[in-house]
Each structure stands twice: as C-alpha cells, then as structure tokens.
Please model this.
Amino acid sequence: MVKLLIGSAGSGKTKVMIDEANKAVEGVRGTFVYVESTDKHSHLLNRSIRLVATEDLKLKGYNGLYGFICGMTSANYDIQKIYIDGLFKVVDVEESKLYDFLEALDKVSNKYETEIVISATLQDEEVKKQVEKFVIA
Model:
C-alpha cells in the first residue's frame, strides 16, 4: 500500500513523517527504512529505523527511485515500511508523472507486503486530483 502526505512547503510534513515513523516502528518486526535527501534528521529518528540519505546516490527521476525501491525490497524481504520524506528533494522530477510512479510503486508494495509512505509538496491542482486515492493528508 502506498500513502501520500501532501502539503505546502513549510507545512510540517517532515515533522509528521518523523513522528509517525517513530510511532510506527514499535509495531514493526522487520526492517523500517526512512529515505530522505540528506541525513540532517537522523538524530530525530528512532535508532531502529534505517536512514538512507540519497544525496550521494544520484538517483535519476522516478525510474531511478523505483529501481532503488525495487532493489531494496527484493534484496530484503523483511522490509515492512518505507518512508520517503520530500519526494521532490529525493529526486528531481515532474509532478505530472507522479500518478504513474505511485501506481507502479503500489504494485511493488503489494507484492512485497511493504507499506510505503511518501511526503511531497504538490503545486499542480490537476495532479492533486489524479493522486487523490493515495492521499492521507
């Protein structure tokens, strides 16, 4: 299952993601992965959560991030949750392709029984309508 947390820049999405991750890790027996562009929030995350800072990975677009997620989940069947904080900071992509990316990710998420929660700042109202089924806030 893929969930999308959207809001304007500076609306507190990262704080919500960190708080929710720290709460959710208590019920996770497997691996919990938190992906963001840098490691600046590492001290705020429960140490049971595996932080992946993507700044050195040079992920290219949705395909790069999709391949990265597929690689993680296929290599480690114990991953139960993946949080991706600041999607458009993790990869520099067009909002218009977001729906297709979420649909593809949802299939992987269901196959490997991994919950994926993504935060993003969306500006395009049409894109917001397209991805509505994934939105949690």
About this structure: Residues 29 and 80 are 8 Å apart (CA to CA). Residues 61-75 form the longest helix (15 residues).
